[in-house]
Amino acid sequence: MTRGERNNNPGNIRTVAGTVWQGQSPTQTDDAFVQFIDPVYGIRAIVKIFGSYEREGLNTLSEAIDRWAPPNENNSAAYVTAVCGQCNISPDTVVDFSSIMPQLVRAIIQHENGEVIYSTQQISDAISLS
User: Fold this and answer.
1) Which class for 44: exposed (0-12), middle (13-18), buried (19 or more C-beta within 10 A)?
2) pLDDT digit string (tens) for 43-60?
3) Is 36 helix (H, G, I), strand (E, B) or coil?
4) From CA 40, how far away is CA 12, in angstroms rounded?
C-alpha cells in the first residue's frame, strides 16, 4: 500500500499550516502529507485544488501540473506527459478542467501511486462533493 493510499490522500496533498480540509482526519501522524478519514475526501481535495488553479488563471495541463508537482520536487515533464496522455489532451491546450475531471483525477492518482484502486463511483462521489 502506498503512502497516498494509507493516508486516504491519493493525490499526496501536502500539509499546509492553517489549512484544514473537509474530511481531514482529526489525528495527523504524517508530518508531510494530509491524512483523510476516507479516500473520497482525498480525491475531493484534488478536485478542489484544480478548481482553484482555474480561478487563478491556470488553464492548461502543463501549467496546472507544474503547480501541482513543481519541477524542484518532481520530474514535472514526465508527469505532464503521463497526465496529458491519459486525458488525451496536449500539454498547452486550453481546457476546462471540470470537463475532464474524472480522467484528470485518475491520471493524477495513477502517477502518484502507480495504480488506481478507487472505483469509478468513489471518484464520481468525490467530484460531486466538491
Assistant:
1) buried
2) 999 999 999 999 999 999
3) strand
4) 13
